[in-house]
């Protein structure tokens, strides 16, 4: 099974079966997100249900770090923006740009008083994301993949940006799962997934990391004995990064593969089985990878125009319908969105 197909299984499983630390948390799952330094395969957000609904009122599009700085400090009554917002640590002109972007999205009220811009929040930006869990997917854990992964997990643990770090791998029939013999940091949890049934089992419990404490960014880890290089990451930087990642995860979810794959190809199908719904290529007789399923694919054939008129009367053929279906599924996990067509 390709890493992509496995990853979709993990996302599907997490969306339906993840046990959040607080039972009343709502779960939002996303894939392929991270920072400049690190991209995670699967992200699980454990969210305050009311906060998630309030977040939905802002629409599905993510806010970036600069916009979040304004939103989180926006006052309830009209105030000159420089009096309302803490010093951003970067030029104020970028703050003004964010203010205009937020006003365009109706996320902030603005008015001019002489030469001064005053701002007022339209609604409070909620504290919606309680925990961020990062999962690395390695269906087939070869020795060299395990070595690379061990280094990445060490970095994750040292930085502590997520609340938990996990590795998910395909279950084997061996008495001791080989992944337990890999030299991973003991803080990382291990999950074995059965891709046929879409079920998973925890075989090593993770230890909670410390997202509120200072972290260490390992910027270089030489193979020889010379010292690794570190950068200090303060808790404010981490909190900003976490929220920006959560925002992107909120927008993107894990079904956005339809945006880059070719559901408009006549061989593309969404197939449902015990483990959930997955993209399937009739020509390749399996789930294609995102890299394969593009316009440049040798077997690509556009869906026949007749498909767009027969039984698909209104808006496009099966390709367009597939995108709409996946977008709808994504929206179902995000209460409070006001009829937006994402
Ligand atoms: S033939 Fe190529 S483009 Fe068409 S569904 Fe298969 S992988 Fe995707």
Question: What are the SSEs and their pairings?
Answer:
Layout: H1 3-17, E1 26-34, E2 39-47, H2 49-56, H3 65-73, E3 79-80, H4 81-84, H5 92-104, E4 108-113, E5 116-121, E6 129-137, H6 143-159, E7 164-170, E8 189-194, E9 199-204, E10 215-220, E11 229-233, H7 235-252, H8 257-260, E12 268-273, E13 276-281, H9 305-309, H10 318-332
Parallel strand pairs: 6-7, 7-8
Antiparallel strand pairs: 1-2, 2-6, 3-5, 4-5, 8-9, 10-11, 12-13
Helix pairs in contact: 3-5
The structure holds iron/sulfur cluster.
Structural overview:
With 342 residues, the chain is of the alpha+beta class. The protein has 3 domains: 3-51 and 128-252, Trna Endonuclease, Chain: A, domain 1; 61-121, Orthogonal Bundle (Arc Repressor Mutant, subunit A), CATH 1.10.10; 257-332, no CATH class. The chain contains 10 helices and 13 strands. The structure holds iron/sulfur cluster. Residues 262, 265, 267-268, 281, 283-284, 288, 292-293, 297, 299-300 line the site of iron/sulfur cluster (SF4).
Write a brief structural summary.
The chain is α+β, with helices and mostly antiparallel strands. Helices cover 32% and strands 24% of the residues. The protein is globular.
Order of helices and strands: HEEHHEHHEEEHEEEEEHHEEHH
Number of domains: 3
CATH architecture of the largest domain: 3-Layer(aba) Sandwich
* Amount of helix: 25-40%
């Amino acid at each position: 099974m390709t890493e992509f197909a496995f990853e979709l299984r993990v996302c599907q499983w997490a969306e339906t079966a993840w046990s959040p630390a607080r039972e009343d948390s709502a779960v939002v799952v996303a894939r392929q997100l991270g920072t400049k330094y690190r991209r995670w395969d699967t992200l699980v957000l454990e969210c305050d249900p009311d906060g998630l609904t309030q977040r939905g009122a802002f629409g599905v599009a993510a806010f970036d770090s600069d916009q979040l700085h304004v939103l989180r400090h926006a006052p309830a009554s009209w105030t000159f923006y420089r009096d309302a917002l803490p010093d951003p640590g970067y030029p104020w002109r970028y703050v003004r740009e964010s203010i205009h972007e937020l006003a365009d999205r109706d996320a902030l009220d603005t008015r001019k008083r002489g030469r001064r811009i005053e701002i007022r929040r339209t609604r409070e930006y909620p504290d919606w994301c309680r925990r961020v869990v990062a999962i690395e997917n390695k269906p087939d854990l070869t020795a060299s993949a395990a070595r690379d992964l061990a280094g990445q997990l060490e970095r994750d643990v040292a930085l502590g940006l997520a609340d938990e770090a996990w590795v998910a791998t395909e279950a084997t029939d061996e008495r001791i799962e080989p992944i337990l013999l890999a030299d991973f940091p003991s803080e990382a949890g291990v999950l074995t997934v059965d891709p046929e049934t879409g079920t998973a089992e925890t075989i090593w419990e993770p230890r909670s990391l410390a997202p509120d404490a200072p972290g260490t960014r390992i910027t270089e880890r030489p193979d020889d004995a010379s010292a690794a290089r570190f950068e200090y990451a303060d808790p404010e930087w981490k909190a900003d990064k976490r929220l920006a990642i959560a925002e992107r995860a909120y927008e993107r979810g894990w079904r956005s593969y339809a945006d880059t794959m070719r559901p408009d190809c006549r061989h593309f199908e969404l197939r449902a089985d015990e483990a959930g719904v997955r993209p399937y290529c009739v020509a390749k007789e399996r789930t294609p990878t995102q890299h394969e399923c593009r316009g440049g694919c040798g077997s690509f054939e556009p869906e026949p125009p007749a498909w767009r008129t027969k039984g698909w009367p209104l808006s496009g053929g099966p390709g367009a319908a597939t995108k709409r279906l996946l977008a709808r599924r994504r929206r179902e996990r995000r209460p409070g969105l006001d009829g937006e067509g994402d």
